[in-house]
Amino acid sequence: MTKIGFIGLGIMGGPMAANLVKAGFDVTGYNRSSVKIARLVEAGGRGADSVADAVRDADVVVTMLPDSPDVEAVVLGEDGVLAHAKPGTLLIDCSTIRPDVSRQIASRARAVDAPVSGGEQGAIEGSLSIMVGGAAEDFAAARPVLEAVGSTVVHVGAAGAGQTVKAANQLIVAGTIELVAESLVFLEAHDVDTGAAIEVLSGGLAGNRILDRKAAAMVRREFTPGFRVELHHKDLGIVQAAAREAGVVLPLGAVVAQLMASLKAQGHGGLDHGALLKLVDQLSGRE
Ligand code: NAD
């Protein structure tokens, strides 16, 4: 039985680790706050007291942490994964981080970057879309693990390429949420039944997953995360830096990055990114 050490049991990592248990892997999880470890144990996994404890016997280590500095500390740090895992252990980093950090890790270990899309619901259902960067043989080894948590698993290139594709994903998602938010406020201002509008819009060329999965909660002004504004702000920073590095210009991306920054600056970093609607309400004087 493949032994997996899983670090970062948050909104995404918790259900992903539970799905690995369901698929028959022997999963040992570690998280900074221990409530989340208890949840994995309830789901049939094992709990660890430290990163070292989680990875010592692992064949595969999966990380699902918030940001680049977290992954650097947990993987490369003094008491981190590389210091305690067996040589040759495969690292699968599912966090969304800077492509250069993924490349740095891959230069020091057998590792793939495998950021995911599909949100909390996709993590619970095991239907995530996973974009993988790394060597072909490491992708092949990671595949059975990733197929237990995702339904679309694609090798997109060398180390770091998964993160570049994820950056494009975050650009599309943020832009789409903003357009859906603007449409909803526009429809409400015209006293149109938003439920009926969402139904018909979903069937046409404007149909998209944000309409299907998020618009109803946005209409109710319900912004429990889901995906937090502060994480999407982080991701749009990655997009902007990577665009600059490649010498390409992303005008709509720049606007939506500023809007996301404004939400965070107003103290809404902990809300779901659907809260972009709050800004449209504010800008339209409709709060
Ligand atoms: P989260 O904050 O819910 O989970 C992160 C977990 O890591 C937390 O439980 C935290 O306690 C733990 N953690 C942080 N530092 C740690 C450390 N040093 N040691 C041990 N545990 C530590 O975040 P999330 O929403 O699950 O997102 C995780 C990653 O996945 C992020 O990079 C995010 O951008 C990405 N992502 C999130 C979603 C989503 O919808 N939430 C979707 C796709 C990708």
From TrEMBL:
Stated name of the protein: 2-hydroxy-3-oxopropionate reductase
Annotated 3-hydroxyisobutyrate dehydrogenase-like NAD-binding domain residues: 160-279
InterPro entries according to UniProt: 3-OH-isobutyrate_DH-rel_CS (IPR002204), 6-PGluconate_DH-like_C_sf (IPR008927), 6PGD_dom2 (IPR013328), 6PGDH_NADP-bd (IPR006115), HIBADH-like_NADP-bd (IPR029154), HIBADH-related (IPR015815), NAD(P)-bd_dom_sf (IPR036291), Tartro_sem_red (IPR006398)
Keyword annotations of the record: NAD, Oxidoreductase
Gene Ontology MF: a single term: 2-hydroxy-3-oxopropionate reductase activity
Domain of life: Bacteria
Alphabetized PROSITE patterns for the sequence: 3_HYDROXYISOBUT_DH
PANTHER family: 3-HYDROXYISOBUTYRATE DEHYDROGENASE-LIKE 1, MITOCHONDRIAL-RELATED (PTHR43060)
